[in-house]
Structure formats: structure tokens, C-alpha cells
Design a protein that fits this description.
alpha/beta, Rossmann fold, eight-stranded mixed sheet, four-stranded parallel sheet, 9 helices, 16 strands, elongated
Length: 342
């Protein structure tokens, strides 16, 4: 008998996990159906307890906000059903962490949602997709996974959506959680959690279009012209991928000031993988001056995750400096893991 405790939905979106080598070109292409992917683990699971939705088949560099919205709607409908214990989303690894974060911020559910993928395609003898998929299904069926937010599970490790980053182009150990570490692992078929994610956000989708938000990188000698160009081309918000703990040079600072004069929200992230942004220096273009000019620090969010949060904030009408600072200064969850929702 099917019960809410065991039935899992698997939503496929494309990527290496559903790719095979094309004999004519020798190149991998996403061609497998969800049913074919499930067949790879049919000897390990009761396939009658797995429901497959082939939502899209997209190479992950092509994933767009429109794809995120379609995926969010599909997952929200699935987790709303009483017979579904959790949802697995299979996805290409290139932009997987962005999709995971978008879902984490926009889904209001305690049920597990687990994104997984593969670094090796199905034509390779050591294809890692089946193991990753099987582990993701196990996580969805684990009672301790409730309330953990959206997770990313590959290579036996479990990451929180907020913290996870892809760190290697080819290695199966590519997804890491930096200084915070993995939240759990799957070992000998057993799901074990080491800690709970304590930082959680919820920004509802309002039905308004997701605005254009651009990322502009700071580098030695940056002129600021790309900031000006983004504003001129109609960007509704900007994320600056700054250096160190959130600094830019004088030319970039002046361009950011011009953007702020036009009331374009500006969020400052850093290109450094760990440590985040903070106020600590007072030179021209430092975080102190940027904050005084009305920019918002991203905290521990990468530039690409800060962009997603800024997009969601603007569509929800939270584009003022104070509102954005409250949003990016994430509330800390309670000890029982029920995180505060903004």
C-alpha cells in the first residue's frame, strides 16, 4: 500500500545525469527519460513507490528564470499532495546550486526537496547518476530530513542549498559547503544528519515577472563602465562580485554611486569562496563607503545566489535599502530547526 512515508516524486530537468554519448559526434547529450533513469536503480527500489515527471530536458547552462518558475510550480504541487513524502529533482551540475537556492527561498514546505545530478554520463562505466539518485530518494524518505529545506546530494554527501557550491569541473566530489561543512551523509544505505541548516528565508512568488538583475565583477583596473552599461540597458538591480570582504576600486565605486542615484538596488558579494562580506576598512570603495552609499552586503551568499535573492526581493516589493538589509541579514532559526521565515 502506498503511503506518504515512502512515495517519492522524481522530476527530471536534463543534465549529465540523463545524458549519453552520441555515436555520431562522440559528445554527451541529455536524451534519457526519467523512466530510463529509474530503471538504472530498479533492482534497489520499489519502482511502484516512485512517480516520475519529465518536466524539461535542458542542458544546465541554458537554465533560465522561466525554467525556475516552471519547476517551482511543479514541485509546489507535488509537495502539497498528502501521498508524496518528498521530491527529487535531477539537474545538470553547472547551475544546480542556483536552482536549489531558488527553490529553497520560494518553497514553503517542511517536506524534503533534494536536487541531484551526475558528473559522469550514462555511457561511462562509472556513471555516478544511479547512486546519487538512489541516495536522494533515501533522503526524501528519511523522517529527519523534514524541515531541512532544499538539499543537494551527490557523492554520498548532503549539502544545504544556501551553502553549497560546485568546486570542480569534473570531480565527483565537486559539491562542497565550504567552512560550514556538509549537513549530512548517506553511508551503507543509511541517511545521517550532522547538523541542521539554521539560516532560512522565504520570499513568496507574487506573480510579478522576475526582474533583470546583472552581476558585474570587480577586478584590478575595473573601470565601472559595465556597471553603467547594465543600468543603461535596464537592469532593475545589480550584484557586484567584489574582492576581499566586499571592496571595489574608486572607478567602480563611482559607478555604483551613479546606479544608486537612479535608485537601482546594489548588493555587494565577494569572489572569495568563504568568509563572506563585512565592514572593516574605510578607504575609497571599501565596504564602509559602499554601505554608506546605500549598497547592501550579501553576507555569506555568493554573487549568483545574491542575484536570485535580489530578483525575488524586487518582485515582492522589497527593493528599499532597509528591507534589503533585513532580508540579506538572515534570521537565525530556532534550536529545533524551525527556521524563521522572512
Amino acid at each position: 500500500m502506498r503511503t506518504a512515508a515512502t512515495r517519492v516524486a522524481v522530476v527530471t530537468t536534463g543534465g549529465t545525469i540523463v545524458s549519453r554519448i552520441d555515436a555520431a559526434t562522440g559528445l554527451a547529450m541529455p536524451v534519457m527519460s526519467g523512466a530510463a533513469l529509474i530503471e538504472c536503480i530498479a533492482d534497489r527500489v520499489d519502482t511502484d513507490e516512485i512517480e516520475v515527471l519529465d518536466l524539461m530536458c535542458v542542458a544546465s547552462p541554458h537554465i533560465s528564470p522561466e525554467h525556475w518558475l516552471a519547476l517551482q510550480r511543479a514541485v509546489a504541487e507535488l509537495v502539497a499532495r498528502s501521498d508524496i513524502a518528498g521530491v527529487v529533482v535531477t539537474h545538470g551540475t553547472s547551475t544546480l546550486e542556483e536552482t536549489a537556492w531558488f527553490l529553497d527561498v520560494t518553497l514553503d514546505t517542511g517536506k524534503p526537496v533534494v536536487l541531484t545530478g551526475a558528473q559522469r554520463n550514462a555511457s561511462e562505466p562509472d556513471f555516478d547518476g544511479p547512486r546519487n539518485l538512489l541516495n536522494a530518494i533515501r533522503i526524501c524518505r528519511c523522517p529527519e530530513a523534514r524541515g531541512m529545506g532544499v538539499m543537494v546530494a551527490l557523492n554520498d554527501h548532503i549539502n544545504a542549498a544556501r551553502e553549497v557550491r560546485k568546486t570542480h569541473t569534473l570531480d565527483v566530489e565537486t559539491f562542497q559547503s565550504g567552512e560550514w561543512g556538509f549537513i549530512g551523509a548517506v553511508s551503507a544505505d543509511r541517511v545521517m544528519f550532522h547538523r541542521r541548516p539554521m539560516r532560512s528565508l522565504y520570499v513568496p512568488l507574487t506573480g510579478e515577472p522576475l526582474p533583470e538583475v546583472d552581476i558585474v565583477s570587480m577586478y584590478a583596473g575595473a573601470s565601472g563602465r559595465l556597471v553603467d552599461a547594465a543600468v543603461k540597458l535596464g537592469a532593475r538591480g545589480l550584484v557586484i562580485q567584489a574582492v576581499a570582504s566586499g571592496h571595489v576600486n574608486g572607478a567602480m565605486f563611482e559607478a555604483i554611486e551613479r546606479a544608486r542615484t537612479r535608485e537601482v538596488p546594489v548588493v555587494i558579494a565577494t569572489r572569495i569562496p568563504t568568509g563572506g562580506t563585512r565592514i572593516g576598512y574605510g578607504f575609497a570603495g571599501s565596504t564602509r563607503q559602499l554601505v554608506d552609499a546605500g549598497a547592501v552586503l550579501s553576507g555569506d551568499l555568493s554573487a549568483w545566489k545574491a542575484r536570485i535573492l535580489l530578483m525575488l526581493a524586487i518582485q515582492a516589493g522589497l527593493s528599499g535599502v532597509d528591507a534589503l538589509r533585513d532580508l540579506f541579514d538572515t534570521r537565525i532559526g530556532s534550536p529545533d530547526g524551525d527556521a524563521a521565515r522572512t
